[in-house]
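Hello again, I could really use a second opinion on something today. My current little project is about how a certain protein chain folds up. You're getting the sequence in one-letter code plus the fold written as tokens. Here's the protein in full, and shout if anything looks odd to you:
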Amino acid sequence: MYRLSSPPAILPGIAATVLVWLVGRGAAAAEDFASAKALMTAWVADGTAAGHQGDVYDNRDGGHSLMKIGNFPGLQQVPYAKEEVRARGWGLQPRVLPQVTFGNSSTAGPATQYGSHIRNAYTNPHMTAIVYQQYIGNNLYIYPEHRDHDPGPGKGGYGDLMPLNTPYLIGTQGSSGSDQPALLAVGLALGCFPPETKKVLAEKGLLMPTVQMLYRICQADIASKEDYLSGKAHPTVFPTSKIHYVRLANMAHDLKSRDVPSMVKIKVLKEDSSRPGIDYFEPGGRTEQLCDTPAAIGRVFRGRQYERKVVVSAEDSFDINGRLRTFHWIILRGDPARIKITPRNPRKSEVEIIVPYSPRRPIPENPAVESNRVDIGVFIDNGRQLSAPGFICFYSLDSEKRKYDDEGRILEIDYNTGNFVDQRLTTPKPWRDAYRYQGGKCLGWTRHYSDGRTEQYTDDGRLERPAANGAAADSVPVQYQIGAGAKPGTQELKAVPNVL
């Protein structure tokens, strides 16, 4: 079972957060939801909406941010024993429940430790695979970002700390209570589907992908197909004040089983690789692959190369009504002038993507928050509906500062900038590598340690040893191991000569 390093803490400010949401949209928010709820109630009564018989609500914060299930007649709540609640045996859900389930947990850890449940799901490949199984298994959870997606550094936060974007859960901007508007939206969608539509969606693993599509397209600033096929419809986390409840209820109720969205499924066919101990330095077989799941692929820029090339196929995508038509590959986050997407077949179901190294930059939809991530979205238009997105994400490490020349050759990597990065993604390195060239050929690098020491390395990663005591100069291979850091209680990477 996946476990956090310590129990999740209840987030502060539920009353304040809910008050901000209510004031932010005023009476219009409450009126919008009340109108949508009235529509759902009437539709359930006349048999044209499924309601919530057999559905469950899963609160995983001991009732701290508890949704009123009375808004959704027929909805049942997952019971937890008092002992489990007292022991805080909740938080990020590590299981797939057998019923149609939606839930929340307004708990998290400090940003500089394990952070939000969103980040926990996205930094652990095992948990990423589980939230995908929840996604296709009719489960959907909402988690606040807490301090993982705030202005910073120097402004109280650390920017966008998520190394990945997925459609597998819903993240909300803020702390306790920020999950409540999203819970109401998900509950409305599940209750307003026509009975036959909901049955088909649940049987085919399309229920929560369809809910995700509706949730994203029913945000206040999404008014067109072009808006939906853009970054503003697919942020890392969602603000709490932009949901159009009546619009969402009507779209869910109007969805016939013959018109349901297609399902995006993607996989990597071919990609560039980087060499450990030469192009990047990490212990324990860590690579650039963060995750490979059918609707989210994640990569971490570790190697010194300026760009990454990856070939991705969406050929495994499906449409239960045989209407698999147009594939869209969209730059949702990143510089369109520098990122290249090239179709490899006429129907654009397979593409080559080239992404250059992309350091931290402001997020267009929220410039106060900066991000180190590039997001490529994959969508299918079946002529009736747009699908929920698939994502290909590239994440650079904010603890690094890089310099490249005009030809894309690496000149320097400072691994010790002091900026915070989740240590599940990288090991602290107390050095700066300056690369040496002759006639355009890389000869190796000079490693400058924070304590003033220097070392010389060959371009194949061997440590150079100068001539001494009559012995000729030579070079030796190096192993990278985690050792004690300069500050008590810290760890950092060590370069250990592998000498027999």
